[in-house]
Amino acid sequence: MTTARYARWDGTGRPFTVVEAGVPGSLRPGEVLARVDLATVCGSDLHTVRGRRSSPAPSVLGHEQVGTVLASAPGLRCADGTPVTPGLRIVWSVTASCGRCDRCVRDMPQKCAGLRKYGHEPLDPDAPFTGGFATHCVLLPGTTIVAVPDGLPDVVASPASCATATVAAALAVPGDLAGRRVLVAGAGMLGVTAVAMATERGAHVVAVDPHPARRARAARFGAAETVPAAAPGAFDVAVELSGASASVAACLSALDIGGVAVLAGSVSPGEPVPIDPERVVRSLHTVVGVHNYRPADLQTAVDFLAAHQDRYPFHELVAGRYALAELDSAVAAATGAAPRQAVVPG
Fold it and tell me: What's the confidence (pLDDT) of residue 77?
């Protein structure tokens, strides 16, 4: 048994506690033991810690991370076919799916009937390494693993497991974006990533955010226009990434004839949003929800970051470098200018 550490979250209003534990010396079929090299504090982690969303306590939070394979069950491969071997630098999906249930068979593995989610599981003291806020993580069977290219820094690669892959899933919904007017609502981590991805696919991207500093950042990620509010009926595609009910309503109003609204930001409870069914029907609108993502989306995320990290300042989206024992400080700092704070568990 190797001694390792994890940060135990005991519920809203209580500090994280660093706990020592042993990692297994042997793995079951389909499992991988990874060292967590860097993790980032996601907005979902903040919602959990602040009581805005229900989550089991105690637990080990964190689901955006990059790590190194220490040991692997035989025969495992990454999404692109790369063998999973010790020393390989990787990111892994936020979910582990069975691959056999009716949802998996219907190409919805992200909603598997037996879904396990990193950073969202009740703490099992005998097998606690299920989240990114730890020195190690045991990857379960059915986890998508993607190899990280050598030239991609940890601070850029880590958010791929949630933010970047979620955006890839959202932008897969409307299909071809070339020449289309795309509204991106919310210029946080997901928003600026969506701006860059849609821009690279040939869209005319308008970023909407009430905060001037965020609008300025969206412009640096390729937005053709940045505005505090969207014009009604002007867009082919509207991607909502802030989760604010008013923003959801604005996206629905912003659609042109045949427009597609992709809602991906509403991951915690909010006020209901009214919808005009006649307008949806007569305008041939499509409204789609996106939550989690499919395996291919994580590969797309890493490929995009590797190809475009020099054009867009993704490294500036992550600040800080907190030890595991400083996780409370990392969470407190997450309200600052950078959308993510980095935790280095080792």
Answer: 98
Strand partners, 38: 66
Pairwise CA distance, residues 289 & 248, whole Å: 11
- Pure H helices in the chain: 43-49, 102-105, 154-157, 163-172, 189-200, 212-220, 245-254, 277-282, 295-308, 327-333
CATH number, span 174-289: 3.40.50.720
Q: Are 117 and 111 in contact (CB under 8 A)?
A: no
Query: Over the stretch 287-345, which tens digit does the pLDDT of each residue have?
Result: 999 999 999 999 999 999 999 999 999 999 999 999 999 999 999 999 778 999 999 99
Question: Going along the chain, which residue ranges are E strands?
Answer: 2-8, 17-23, 32-40, 65-72, 89-96, 116-117, 136-139, 143-147, 181-185, 204-208, 225-227, 235-240, 255-263, 286-289, 318-323, 340-344
Asked whether the beta carbons of 181 and 204 are under 8 A apart, the reply is yes
pLDDT, tens only, 63-94:
999 999 999 999 999 999 999 999 999 999 99
157-169 burial code (b ≥16 CB/10 A, e <16): bbbbbbbbbbbbb
Sort residue 105 into left (φ over 0), alpha (ψ -120 to 50) or beta. Answer: alpha
Please answer whether residues 111 and 292 qualify as being in contact, where contact means their C-beta atoms are separated by less than 8 angstroms: yes
The values of phi and psi at residue 38, to 5°, are: -160, 140
**CATH 3.90.180.10 is right for the domain spanning 2-161+293-344:** yes
What does the block give as tokens for 176? Answer: 């071809």
pLDDT at 3 over 90: no
Would you state the pLDDT for residue 59? 98
Tokens representing 184 are 């991106």
Boundaries of every domain in the chain: 2-161+293-344, 174-289
First to last CA, the chain: 17
Same fold, 2-161+293-344 and 174-289: no
Closest CA to 92 of 165, 190, 170: 165
